[in-house]
Amino acid sequence: MFDFVSFFPRAVMQGIPLLLGATGETLTEKSGNLNLGIPGIMYVGGICGVIGAFFYEQSGHMNGFLAVAIPVLCCLLGSLLMGLLYCFLTVNLRANQNVTGLAMTTFGVGFGNFFGGSLIKLTGSEVPSIALSATSAYFSKSLPFTDKLGVFGKLFCSYGFLAYVAIIIALVCSYVLKRTRVGLQLRAVGESPATADAAGIDIAKYKYVATCVGSMIAGLGGLYYVMDYACGVWSNDAFGDRGWLAIALVIFTIWRPNVGILASILFGGLYILYLFIPTGTNLAVKELYKMLPYIVTIFVLVLTSMRNKRDNQPPESLGVPYFREDR
Amino acid sequence: MENKTAAVQMRDITKRFGTVLANDRVWLDIYRGEILALLGENGSGKTTLMNMLSGIYFPDEGQIFINGEEAVIRSPRDAFGYGIGMIHQHFKLVDVLTAAENIVLGLKEPGRLNMDEVAKKVKAICDTYGFDVDPYQKVYNMSVSQKQTVEIVKVLYRGADILILDEPTAVLTPQETEKLFAVLRNMRDAGKAIVIITHKMHEVEELSDRVAILRHGQFVGDMLTKKTNAQEMTNMMVGRPVTLNIERPDPVDPKPRVEVKGLTVRDIEGTLKLEDVSFTINSGEILGIAGISGCGQKELLEAIAGLQPAESGSICYVEDDGTREELVGKDPLSIADMGVCLSFVPEDRLGMGLVGSMDLTDNMMLRSFRKGKSFFTDRKKPRQLAEKVVKDLDVVTPGVTTPVRRLSGGNVQKVLVGREIASAPSVLLTAYAVRGLDINASYTIYDLINQQKKAGVAVVYVGEDLDVLLELCDRILVLCGGKVSGIVEGRGASKPEVGMMMTRLGGKKNA
Amino acid sequence: MRKQSKGPIVHISKRSALPWYHAWAIRGAAILLALVVCAFVTTALTGEDPIGVYKTMFAGAFGTKRKAWILGQNLAILLCISLAVTPAFKMRFWNIGGEGQVLIGGLATAACMILLGDKIPNWLLIGIMILASIAAGAIWGGIPAICKAKWNTNETLFTLMMNYVATQLVAFFVIVWEVPKGAGKIGIINQSTQAGWLPQIGSYKYLLNILIVAVLTILMYFYLSRSKQGYEIAVVGESERTARYVGINVGRVIVRTMLISGGICGLAGLLLVGGTDHTITTTIAGGRGFTAVMVAWLAKFNPLVMVFTSFLLVFLSRGASEISTIYGLNHSFGDILTGIILFFIIGSEFFISYRLSFLKHTKKEG
Q: What is the third-level CATH fold of B243-341+428-436+458-511?
């Protein structure tokens, strides 16, 4: 039988990195920057957190607050630098956003795997992975009274703090985009930079801030994956294609972070559905089930393009560099 | 005049774009309680000058004084700080936002954003000056005049007391223009300084208190409107006495060439663009099409050219021997395959008629590249054609391998018209053929069109300048809201008569 | 209160066209600068002197005959995929699904080899393999193109998702055909009979692939710059409205071009599976579908220049893998170096299109 109570928490845990990635990318895209470097940034965010945690664990004694704060800060710093690099190239140097993003992904994945590999060598371990179980324990600590709440607790309270942070971030982003002055101006920048510019909005500043904050949020997705989902075990390439799925999720949610909360859980569910469908000894069919998230994305993509509703379109000048004196 | 304070003084303002000198040491004073008309030909630097006041561009040289203090305007935000607001010709509005959202865009008001408060303030401004704006309407659902109103409310909301309007009437109906002028007079009387950029003489005379004239980026002079007249202003604009006469030979042996019957066209969003339009285009004749912008001219030409599907009606091409071919339902390729040689000079030259990044030779090929069975293209003939067009039409270009984007507006148009008439068409459709051209280039185009007419081509000329239409065309079809308001003879038609027909179906008589 | 009249310090303006040698000089300088930075990075991580590191890289790329051949083979495959994506990019169709199109082409090849091997004559088998791989790639590229043509569906994401669908399909068949059962991989197909293996020219295992791609490069060059279809692609890419205006059927051009683009990717799959690897795995394309985007873009979509840009990227990755082996670093080191060099080249484009001038705001009293 399909075991929903054990399925749902796993779907959520799969979904959280996607949610963080998608929220970050939504914010970035709202400023008119199509950052295809998100997969790379999530790798960088993950490995920077791992590096921070690794050296802190090496130092001997552990303090709960620092054990969390150090990896988080390292992760934010790493992804911030990536965001700055992207902005410098696309905003200041007006480079092609697609190519810059792809190059960042190459670089970021390489960066993650390289330092991951180096750390693995440092530990001299037999298996090709690093386990930071002590740090991970702090990250995945759930609320103390979870066990007493039975099924409800398992479904809603059994996650590490980053999962709740992710949901809060998504809600805050949603609120900021929809209801605040800053959000209004950010949307204007992505829709029509020339208009925003004429209205006195500093285009470069908005693009920088949105992209860098977006990168940091996405970076947290990488960190959550390692520290919570993977129980502190970093192995190269394990993060896989989740970054790309996060970008797909942005379109899936028609640029709405609050919709992203449910959509990411749905995606997470599709991602692991194959584990919960009894296929007996036929391992091959499982591989076909793994296609589901991609097929669904394609389906939604085609469907939204067929409906072609004005309010559901990507930001008008997404992917286009802005130059005021372009005539 | 002397008792008024100069709100803005511009001194020695110079601006270059690459090698083009857009403004050359311009002096200009703008006073409060006065409407200043900034007059000049296309490309004379009016918009560039005002863009420097509104912070879009930064002057290469020169100084700006606001209320006697030297001002540095680096960005639109700085301009707002000095109370300067500009309404651009191409509206600067975000389509997916509402009117109110557009109005507060970029403002740094304290406190959190409360759209209902904003809506109230917008209503208050509207009531003061007599505007009609729904703060919650999305811009993409608005008509052009509604968008313009939003633009004006936007600058007023910011408390601007120096308003610049860049060709505000180009997209308005005469009634809307009247309303706008009334509002502008109200604002002048409230002590605001107002600049309108225009090249329409009658607007200058009707509205402005003072007129300043630019020519080739230089300031030519300014004077009180009541002390000058249209001829003097035109001469100053062009730099020499101009006789505004256009040749109009009599049509030789006109025969019906294209018969349009009951044509109805809807755009993609389902809006009715043309309704039951019927008329005939004759060979050896220029048929003018007049109408306020956006009332179906574009769709009409595109429907004939096979670019716009018709909902109903027929477009019949009549050959010399009387054979008739239906054009509705055909795309440009199949129309050409039928042996109908139809040329079309579209409104959007670089976005539709030409490929900006390709050179002259490759642009010459656009129409003809399919000729011949070879898998490969033949670039020899297009190259020869490009050289011929450059020579015959005096196109100023470094060579035929220069991307057309780098040419000036007039030369781009010459390349486009040159290509379109090179195929010896039997029907020539032109949309706003002289828009953005200086007076000399315009006359070159009129000559080319007349030559085609003399060669027996059926010419359709969509224009915005009624004076030109009345002097150039043999017959004028007047459109009003997508319907035929009437067809008049070019010889003897009067401007008020056609103007009336543009705004009311059938003009005065049937109203 | 008088304000100092000061303009922005740096003024950016668009350049008129630079002569081509000037543009390439800027790009060359960017690469040199990037190599210097890479040398610092490498030295920082390995402690070796930078010259030695570059010597090692060079040795890794050309050191032995075998290494040179491998470089040639990698170059050929990367170039092939880059050629494939180029027509799509010229049309402004962002096909980042090269990866999936290669995979599916390879899968079709493998399927033919496994299912038809030894059942029909070898020449017929190879003929079917060629057709099947090209058709499979073309279908994979054609589906997003049809949706783009009909509903303007976002092609970047569509082709990206098609990559993963292809990966999972391959994963599925790898298990279906796994040898021996439970191994999770196919192993060398038709090891004993060599049925469906593309013929070797002399004793050179990789020569055939290299020759095919060389011919393809020249064909693509002429296709894009001289053929009517190539011209149509350029017009559609520059402005769809212009294309409609002159009677080009935009939807048809999009689909046709993507069929070609996907078909060539499928061919690359054939070269990989039938020509060299003789097996299929989910990672056979090895990220080249993405690298190809950069190769094509760096070469400004000129197939002849792409020979050099793909050489640069392959050289970097081969050289970096040598460094990793010698100095005991992780193989991903190559990706870091590649990334750095790409950032420099991407950044250098700015200095080709724009001019920076340092302004002094002059005051003049009239």
A: Rossmann fold (3.40.50)
Q: What is the 3-state secondary structure (H, E, C) of B273-337?
A: EEEEEEEEEECCEEEEEECCCCCCHHHHHHHHCCCCCCCEEEEEEECCCCCEEECCCCCHHHHHH
| Residue A117 resides in a domain | yes
State whether C16 and B18 contact (CB < 8 Å).
yes
**Which residues make Cβ contacts (< 8 Å) with residue A144, sequence separation at least 6?**
none
Q: Do B243-341+428-436+458-511 and B6-238 have the same topology in CATH?
A: yes
Range(s) of the domain holding residue C304 = 76-322
Please, are residues C27 and C300 in contact by the beta-carbon 8 Å criterion?
Answer: no
In a domain, A325, yes or no: no
Q: Which CATH number covers residue C151?
A: 1.10.3470
Residue A80 vs residues A17, B468, C291: alpha-carbon distances, Å: 17, 60, 24
Tell me, what amino acid is at B176? E
Chain-centre distance for alpha carbon C288: 5
Q: Which of B280, A103, A249 is nearest to C347 (CA)?
A: A103
Residue C2 pLDDT? 37
Q: What span, in angstroms and rounded, lies between the C-alpha atoms of B334 and B338?
A: 6
* A103: chain C residues, CB-CB within 8 Å: 294, 339, 342-343, 346
Mean pLDDT by 10-residue block, N- to C-terminus, for chain B (511 residues)? 72 83 90 91 83 88 91 86 87 89 85 86 86 88 84 88 86 76 89 87 86 90 87 79 74 90 86 90 93 84 91 90 87 86 89 89 89 86 92 85 82 90 91 79 87 93 85 92 90 82 67 38
The third-level CATH classification (topology) of the domain covering B6-238 is Rossmann fold (3.40.50)
* Domain ranges across chain B: 6-238, 243-341+428-436+458-511
Is C39 a member of any domain? Answer: no
3-state DSSP helix/strand/coil percent for chain C, to nearest 5?
A: 70, 5, 25
Answer yes or no: are the C-beta atoms of C288 and C156 closer than 8 Å: no
**Residues A196, B94: C-beta atoms closer than 8 Å:** yes
Residue A309, chain B, CB below 8 Å: the answer is no
User: Taking an 8 Å Cβ-Cβ cutoff, which residues of chain B contact chain A?
Assistant: 17, 54-57, 75-80, 86, 88, 92-97, 101, 104-109, 112-113, 138, 140
Q: Is the confidence metric ipTM above 0.90 for this complex?
A: no
**In this structure, are strands C354-358 and B342-345 parallel, antiparallel, or unpaired?**
unpaired
Is pTM beyond 0.90 here? Answer: no
Q: Contact at 8 Å (CB) between B8 and B64?
A: yes
Domain tally, chain C: 1
Neighbours of chain A (3+ CB pairs under 8 A): B, C
C308 — pLDDT class (breaks 50, 70, 90)? very high
Return the residue of C nearest to B13 by Cα: C364
- Can you give the residue range of the structural domain that contains A141? 4-312
- Omega prior to C180 cis, within 30 of 0: yes
- CATH of residue A107: 1.10.3470
Interior/surface letters C261-294, b for 16+ CB within 10 angstroms, e for the rest: bbbbbbbbbbbbbbbbebbbbbebbbebbbbbbb
| Residue type, position B216, single letter | H
Count of CB pairs separated by less than 8 Å, B with C: 98
Number of independent structural domains in chain A: 1
Q: In the structure encoding, which two tokens stand for residue A176, read together?
A: 């900021």
> Chain A interface, mutation test: which of C42, C107, C154, C314, most A Cβ atoms within 10 Å?
C154
Q: Do B290 and B479 contact (CB within 8 A), yes or no?
A: yes
Residues C112 and C189: beta-carbon distance below 8 Å: no
Other CB atoms within 10 Å distance of the CB of residue B135: 22
For A:214-243, CB contacts with C below 8 A are 236, 241
Are the beta carbons of B363 and B415 closer than 8 angstroms?
yes
Q: What phi, psi does A209 have (nearest 5°)?
A: -65, -45
